[in-house]
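Forum: Protein Structure Q&A
Topic: Joint prediction for protein chains with partners

I've read a bunch of threads here and the consensus seems to be that you should model interacting components together rather than docking separate models afterwards. I'd like to see that in practice. Below is the full input, 941 residues plus whatever partners are listed. Could one of the regulars post the assembled result?
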Amino acid sequence: VRALPELFDVRIKARSIAYLFATGAMLGLLTLAVPHMSEVNDLALALLATAAIVIAAIVWLSGDRIREWHIHAVLVCGTVIVSLANYYAGASTLYPVLYMWAALYAFYFFRPPEALAHMAFVAISYAVVLAIQDPESAIVRWLLAVGTPLVAGLLISRLLRRLSDRAQQLEQSEARTRMVLDTAPDAFITLDSDGVIMSWNAAAQRLFGWSAAEAIGKTMRALIVPPEFRERHDERRRALIASESPLATERFEVEFQRRDGGRFPGEATVSKVDIQGEVFVSGFITDVTERARRQAEREALLREQAARAEAERVAELVAGMQALVDAALAHRTLEGILNELVTQVRGVLDADAATIYLADESERLTVGASAPGDIPGGDEFASTVAGAREAMLAPGDSDSARGALVGVPLLAEGEVMGVLVACATPPRQFGGEDLTLLRLAAERVGLAIAHARVYEREHRIAETLQRSLLPDRLPSLPGLDVAARYLPAASEAEVGGDWYDVIPIAGGAVGLVMGDVAGKGLAGASMVGRLRSALRAYALEGPGGARVVEQLNRLLWTEREESQMATMLYVVVDPAAGAVHWVNAGHPPPLMIAHGEPLFLEGASSVPLGVLPFPTYEEVSARMEPGSTLLLYTDGLVERPGENIDHGMAQLAARVREAPEDPDGLCDHLLATLVPAGGATDDVALLTLRNLPVPDRFSAEFPAEPESLAPMRSMLRRWLSHAGAGELEIAEITTACGEAATNAIEHAGVSGGSRFEVSGSRNGSEVQIAVRDHGSWREQRAGDHGRGLDLMRTLMDTVAVEPSPEGTTVSLRRRLGGNGGPG
Amino acid sequence: MHDLVQVQIEQRDGDDVIVARLTGELDISGAKSTGQRIAEAVPSSARGVVVDMSELEFIDSSGVSMLFELARRVGSRRQELRVVAPDGKPVARVLEIVEFDRAAPVHADLDSAVAEIS
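Posted by a regular:
Agreed with the consensus. Here's the joint model:
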């Protein structure tokens, strides 16, 4: 069966019409050759036959140049020739058969519309001829003549159509299969039972480098199977062919060889195909290089992950050990560091005991710290490790109950500072990992021990210096109770920097200083020394706290090459006026405790000293009632690492509420509740001053010396102020009492009495003050010393001198009210 | 123990006038030494001395005696003494009671005292 396109190939049509014309001409000539009726026109027929032969020759010879319409034209000519031949041959001839051929040709080669056109022309031609020759012929003859070719033609046309459709379907199916195989991503190969390649798709060509033309006909084993696998290939192929199942399939991975000799891993899926007794083997081959690579990658990744997990575990262990060591190093004292360390090391190594041996100056080892106790045989082992200057292991022995030991030297600057030894009971043995961990710890610890030793020495010096700079005895101030505490930091060289001072100043006021120099250690302590003496000098120059602080700042600023900075609080308490004035240079605010309620005296806080050349310091004032307490402190009391200072201040306020009233009790309570058990991380300095409540009556004893006069006046001013005296009254009464006291001191100088007593009381609006000494009264001489008595008499309402064998009492009275004196 | 009273010596008009500024409290503990310091600070070439007590918080009879003594010594050298004590302050009140102005003039402010000597 020819394919449809071929059926309509113009050359086939031309050739076949040439045959048709030649056959027709032969039939005509045959009619002339056999005996025939007389009505036949021999010459016309011979001419027509000749014309047909000529046309057939022309068509045959035209070959490739022939066109479709030429064929149509020739067929029309054929119909005309047959019609003329019918006419000249007479009605009795069999020439209608020729019409049939022309019709069949038309139906065979042309599509139905064209074929029907030719058929119509044939029918018309025949009808014309028949009408001329025999007008009376039967209708049956007409129908047969025209209908028979038509029906036959239609039938053959349908048959052809069906055949050609089937041919086309087959063709398309085959093309599709080829296309599917060619576009398949995998190589598809078909072998016959001898292993000879029968088909080879485009993917096979891409994969192996051989084209289909080159591959087909060769054996697969020679073409693409590497030599060492050829035998296995034959076996496998034979086994597959021999298998019982008609559709046996096998899948396997094997190496293949390319045209260029390169090899690759391939996965082959082969099937046995049995087509009507003929056995083939077909198979897909996939390049699994990528898959193999991915698989290898996956495996490498898994191995890497495992390795990383292991590395992370070790790193974690190491970091853990370092964290432990660092935590231990946070301890403030060498003893604290060592104790923490042995405990931690014992835990991390899962050891029974850990000990740190320290080397002294003569390189002898002594136990520095142990957890929980000493290690039997540890001393000798430590000596060995110290001698070798490297980490060592000693396996344990369960028979002799000797523990496994591991030891590392603690080195600093090439010197053995000590040895860290851990021990465990068998079967636990120490290994390389333990050694590594211990070495890590040892690196840091060695340095820490070296530093701690230096720091402890410097700490002692600085602390001694610091303490020497603080007042060793607070001045006793009349009407005021003062207490102070200084607690050096528990850490190595952090000492120094905090200082406080109490400076009595003119007019009964007292200056309180609380400061914190930024520098620590020896430098800080010496700075404190300079500031302290300068402040004392400035403070005594007179009032004006702001000026005092500004002068101090100038001092610190001009010594800037040491880049020193200090916070400071300078407070002046004026008990007589019931006032407190303060200047704050960047220091935590003072705390006022009135009626048991703490209140921070905020405000006017300026920059610390030594930060700016000309900062402004402002003096702020507040009332200070009798009975209230003022608390000054350094940040060491309220500041804790990692904590907000506000929290510390709130804590301070809370502790103050529950503390006893008296300054000493208050200081002790605050230190006990606010300083951590292990010691403060920074220096703590505390200074409290209580403005004692003023009683209606008072009585105080003073040493009979000129230095007692100022405190006495101070006390008197306070009391008078409390008693309701005005400013000028206070000044005048104090002056008068001062005169009496001066006399008392002078008497004592003669008679040897060592004290005098001042007492006061208030009776309504009148105050009465008595100054009693133990000497004998001497009448004031005229002149200089007479002025004392004059003053007393002028300033007071009454002055009475009562000498007695035990001593002399001067009684002074004055009625208060209004600022003017009595005269 | 520190001194209750401090003395600051200044020169005005070249070294013609010596100004002694007293601060703190002047009682028997510091009177004598203060008087000495002032007397020593006055050269014989000076025309006079001003004791400025504007900033002095307290004075008692020993302080007053010191001033009388100073007035006597200065006068004997034909030099002038003037004191400054602002009105209404305790110091001025004491000077008034002991009638110090009989020994030397009392001024309310430093400038006028210095000007008087000049």
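The first helix of chain B runs from residue 31 to 41.
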